[in-house]
Amino acid sequence: MQIFVPKEYDAAELRVPVIPDTAAKLVKLGASVVIESGMGRPSHYDDGAYAAAGATVTADRAAALVGADMVLRIRKPPQDEVSRLKAGCVHVSFLDPFHERALVEALAAAGVSAISMEMVPRTTKAQKMDALSSQASLAGYVAVLLGADRLPRVLPMMMTPAGTISPSRVFVIGAGVAGLQAIATAKRLGARVDAFDTRPVVEEQVKSLGAKFVKVDLGETGQTKDGYAKELTPEQQAKQREAMAAVCAQSDMVITTAQLFGKRAPVIITREMIARMKPGSVIVDLAVETGGNVEGSALGREVDVDGVCVIGLANATGRVAVHASQMYSANLAAFVESFWDKDQKAFALKTEDEIARGCLVTHGGAVVNETIKAAYAKEG
Description:
Elements: E1 2-5, H1 20-29, E2 32-36, H2 47-52, E3 56-58, H3 61-67, E4 70-72, H4 79-82, E5 90-93, H5 101-109, E6 113-116, H6 131-150, E7 158-160, E8 163-165, E9 169-173, H7 177-188, E10 192-196, H8 203-208, E11 212-213, H9 234-249, E12 253-256, H10 271-275, E13 282-285, E14 302-305, E15 308-312, H11 321-338, E16 340-341, E17 346-347, H12 354-359, E18 360-363, E19 366-367, H13 370-379
Parallel strand pairs: 1-2, 1-4, 2-3, 4-5, 5-6, 9-10, 9-12, 10-11, 12-13, 13-15
Antiparallel strand pairs: 6-18, 7-8, 14-15, 16-17, 18-19
C-alpha cells in the first residue's frame, strides 16, 4: 500500500503532517511511504531523514498523487488535485467540511474516501487521534505568549527597589482545550487569571488551574455529546456580554477561544466592550479563522480598536511548528494504526466503526457522514 505525503501549498504553513519517526512507524507496518521532496523542511526535517526512515523521496508530485492509496496532509487539498486521486484512495486531512461543500462533493464524485481530522470523535478510544485537541492546546499556549509580547506590562507581581508591581489581569473566555492551556500558561507566567465558559461543568477544571471562574446565570446551557459548548440564545448572549464587559474593563489581556462545532464563532466582545477597556490592553482572538469572537478583529492582522490591540491570530500552532508537527503526526499515526490490517499490510477502513462514522465524510462515491449530510440538507 502506497502512502503519499505531499508538501503544503501555503508557504506560510510551517507545520508538516508526517515527521521522520512517524514515517518509520508506517514503513514498519508494511506501508510504502512516499514523501514529496522538501515536505519536512518547514519544520526542519530534511529529505535525508525521511530516506533514513525507509521512505521514498520524490519530486514528482503529480505521479505520486495518481499512485497513492492514501494521502496524508494537514490542510484541505486543492480542488484541482482531487481529480488526480484514484477511486478508493483514502485522503486524510483537516477538511472544514461544513464550509467546503464544493470540495467535499468533488471528493465524493472522484470516489475518494475523505477523512476529516477535525471530526474525529472526542471519545476515550479516539483520544490519541484527536488532532483538533492537540493543536488547540498549543494554540492556547501561543495566545498567551503573543499577548504578553504585545502587552506594555509584565505579567507577574514583582517586588522591586522602586516598589511593588501588581500582577497583570488576564481574562480567558472559553475553557475548552485551548482556554485551559491559556489559563495554565498565564498562571505560570504569574498573571491573575479569570475565566468564563457557558458550561458550568468546567468550573472545577478552571479552579484547579488557579484561576477564578466568572459565574453568569444564563439559565440552561450545557454541552454537546462531544464536549462542545451549545449555541446560546440571543437573550443569553446579551446577558453574557453584559457580565463579561465588567471583567474585560479591568483586564489587561483578554483571550477568546469560543467556537461552535460546524458553525460561525459567536461575537462575544463588542466595540462597546472594547471601548471600556484600558488603553494598551490586548485582546487575542483565537476564533478569528471561524469568524471571530471579537468585533473588529481581522484574520492574520493586529488592529487598534479604541487604543486596544486586537490580534486576529491565524494558524497559531504554526508558531510552534516543530511540536505542532510532532503532535499532528502522532495523531495521524494512531489513526492509520487503528485501521491497519497486519495480515494484508494495508489500511482497512471499517465504515461501521464509531470512529470512522464520526470522521469519514465521503466514501463509495457519496457524502456519507450523517452530520455533514444534515448540514447540507439545511442549505438546500
